[in-house]
From TrEMBL:
Residues 5-323 form the Pyruvate kinase barrel domain. Its EC number is 2.7.1.40. Pathway: Carbohydrate degradation; glycolysis; pyruvate from D-glyceraldehyde 3-phosphate: step 5/5. It catalyses: pyruvate + ATP = phosphoenolpyruvate + ADP + H(+). It comes from Wenxinia saemankumensis. It holds the Pfam family PK_C. It comes from the Bacteria. Residues 357-468 form the Pyruvate kinase C-terminal domain. It is an enzyme of class 2 (transferase). The lineage of its organism: Bacteria, Pseudomonadati, Pseudomonadota, Alphaproteobacteria, Rhodobacterales. Keywords: ATP-binding, Glycolysis, Kinase, Magnesium, Metal-binding, Nucleotide-binding, Pyruvate, Transferase. This is Pyruvate kinase. Belongs to the pyruvate kinase family. The keyword Endoplasmic reticulum does not apply.
């Protein structure tokens, strides 16, 4: 299951990918993490998918990560008397209010009092993924008189985006709280929080998770972009969710924002996923467009930890082909000499601690000599994440006795995770690293590897030792004799 690439692939499961045969085929094709979209499907359906993933993991003998993506608060208009909806003309007046009477061509219910509490004249409202645009002319605590600036057909329960204001809404709805508890009890490795606006949203989710899963923030609102540094500080990872981000911001703003967020995550040694519409044409076609391939490649050149498939693998006609295409694109990009130039030129030297210095030295030694791999012992995953931040040229072998850590590291760039027996002496850590490197065909008996660890062992963030170790038989046999 060792990948011949460093970037990871996240594949969403759904109606097209819920059987053992398909999920195993997706893993074999290149999926490192499976996403359970809590916006769709029942708890029983998600539990069944979780059980299948864990069986595939056991059968393949390699850790697989599972990410549960919480729906978040969905803002929608009410219903219309005409089930087919109404046509709004550019320039006309249109009212949103709390009245639950069916709508018509002049008004419709917006059953979210919090929006009216936050609106001000001049604010924009986007309906149906921005296809219809309204500008608030006058508003009160239960209404908003708007002008239609971009017309179109508005129909029952279309989504509403409010890009100009920070809404007094919790990122966790009542449904999300139930889904979060269900997912944590199920044993997922990552939780994704939708429509994050402020650091407090992440703090609340982390408190509810209680360490049972790592928590990442989905960046899909302008408010989250503005508060990104503070949100990143209280998050375990980030997803650049370009769908809603491209609705609430001018589309030309999204590529530079994506690049900025990816670099900040790398500097912080926290995994980042680039998501949404990456190979969307493959929902219906076995071949992607050239533009889609370029989009995936651009994210990889930027140094993202992972790229994600949504409907392509969840509901499309070619889920396995979509994963295989991503795998092929990643392998090709990472073999390009330009990729190395870009990755290394964007490396930001961060040496604030002993651990920072150790992992930086490990990368420099590996690149200056004929080192085959960097093996790092990492109980919490911190050391492996720091090594991944360096984006070394040689493989990263993340060794841990914690199955949860191995699964979470499936989202981190370059980390090949191996579960080993606990060790209490550095010599035994070196022996375990050599055995793993040999077993994974990363090194032979004449080769050497770099080993990093923290002494005393089992202390998160204590990385303080580095050794260049030969992979010779004598080392392994002498340890067996002790």
């Amino acid at each position: 299951m060792r990948r011949h690439r460093n970037v990871k692939i996240v594949a969403t499961l759904g109606p097209a990918s819920s059987t053992y045969e398909v999920i195993r085929a997706l893993a074999e094709a290149g999926a490192d993490v499976f996403r359970l979209n809590m916006s769709h499907g029942t708890h029983d359906e998600q539990r069944a998918r979780h059980e299948i993933i864990r069986k595939v993991e056991a059968d393949l003998g390699a850790p697989i990560g599972i990410l549960a993506d919480l729906q978040g608060p969905k803002l929608r208009v009410g219903v219309f008397a005409n089930d087919e909806g109404e046509e709004l003309e550019t320039g006309q007046a249109f009212r949103l209010d709390l009245d639950d009477a069916p709508g018509d061509s002049t008004r419709v219910q917006l059953p979210h009092k919090e929006i009216f509490d936050a609106l001000e004249p001049g604010a924009s409202l986007l309906v149906n993924d921005g296809k219809i645009r309204l500008k608030v002319r006058e508003c009160g605590r239960d209404f908003a008189e708007c002008e239609v600036t971009v017309g179109g057909t508005i129909s029952n329960r279309k989504g509403v985006n409010v890009p100009d204001v920070v809404l007094p809404l919790h990122a966790l709805s009542d449904k999300d709280r139930k889904d979060l508890e269900f997912a944590c009890e199920l044993g997922v490795d990552w939780l994704a929080l939708s429509f994050v606006q402020r650091p407090a949203d992440m703090i609340e989710a982390r408190e509810l998770a209680r360490g049972r899963a790592a928590v990442l923030a989905k960046i899909e609102k302008p408010a989250a972009v503005k508060a990104f540094d503070d949100i990143l500080a209280v998050s375990d990872g980030i997803m650049v969710a370009r769908g809603d981000l491209g609705v609430e911001l001018p589309v030309q703003n999204v590529p530079p924002i994506q690049k900025q967020l990816v670099r900040k995550c790398r500097t912080a040694a926290k995994p980042v996923i680039v998501a949404t519409q990456m190979l969307e044409s493959m929902i219906e076609s076995p071949m992607p467009t050239r533009a889609e391939v370029s989009d995936v490649a651009a994210a990889i050149y930027e140094g993202t930890d992972a790229v994600m498939l949504s409907a392509e693998s969840a509901a499309g006609s070619f889920p396995i082909e979509a994963v295989r295409t991503m795998d092929n694109v990643a392998a090709e990009v990472e073999s390009d000499p330009t990729y190395r130039e870009i990755i290394e030129s964007s490396r930001k030297i961060t040496r604030r601690s002993v651990a920072d210095g150790i992992v930086s030295a490990a990368r420099e030694i590996a690149e200056a000599t004929d080192i085959k791999a960097i093996a790092c012992f990492s109980q919490s995953g911190t050391t492996a994440s720091l090594v991944a931040r360096e984006r070394p040229r040689v493989p990263i072998l993340a060794l841990t006795s914690e199955q949860d850590t191995a699964r979470r590291l499936c989202l981190t760039w370059g980390c090949a995770c191996v579960i080993v027996e606990p060790v209490d002496r550095f010599k035994m850590a070196v022996v375990a690293a050599v055995r793993a490197a040999r077993a994974e065909n990363l090194a032979g008996p004449q080769d050497t590897i770099v080993v990093t660890a923290g002494v005393p062992f089992n202390t998160p963030g204590s990385t303080n030792i580095l050794r260049v170790a030969p992979c010779e038989e004598r080392l392994i046999f002498s340890a067996d004799a002790e």
